[in-house]
User: Fold Methyltransferase domain-containing protein from Paractinoplanes durhamensis.
Amino acid sequence: MAHSNPIRIVDQRTPEDRDRSFLPGAGKSWLLPFYDAFTRLAGVRALHRRTVELAGVEPGQTVVDVGCGTGNLSFTVLAAQPSARVTGLDPDADALRRAARKARRRNLSLALVQGYADRIPADDAALDHVISALALHHIDDAGRIAFARDALRALRPGGTITIADFEGVKNAGHPARRRRLAHSGNHGNGIVTLLADAGFGDAQEVAHADHRIGRVTFVQATLTG
Assistant:
């Protein structure tokens, strides 16, 4: 049975964005058909569940999943809180189409936007939550700084940002990914510093996991004032 709200993908990219490069979730575009199987085998679902648990999404709240890929973190939010209003954001059109198909099969209401992390699809002070899991290490320094600042803009007072990502480069998988992680500065207190520098006053690591794909840190901050 078709959902009463068919899943659409909105392209919010500017003409300048269309030439921007990005690192696909699977590392290479041709690996996308194997991505969901890989994440299941790697146990990434547990990291998604922990991210959602820490975020504490309540009924009816608005959530943007930055770097949503094929939608797995967004689906975890909706499994925990079916009345949440969730938008997935990602630059990869193929991954978004896969997310849309999965959402239709599950009969879920999910908004999907093609775009970049530095332009979160929300008005000022409109969101209850910004979440992201294993996506920030795909973004360069300037992009992460812009993302943190835009999250500050988009969250309402009392809204939270919850990020799960690699703490360091050890056991991070493919050599290209390890080089990307080393460049990103996500190790140690990098994510905490990123959010604090953007203006979040209480950014802190709230949990960590020694996962088979590497040590993952969970960082959270709340917009006050």
Q: What stands out?
A: The longest helix spans residues 93-106. Confidence is low (pLDDT under 50) at residues 168-188.
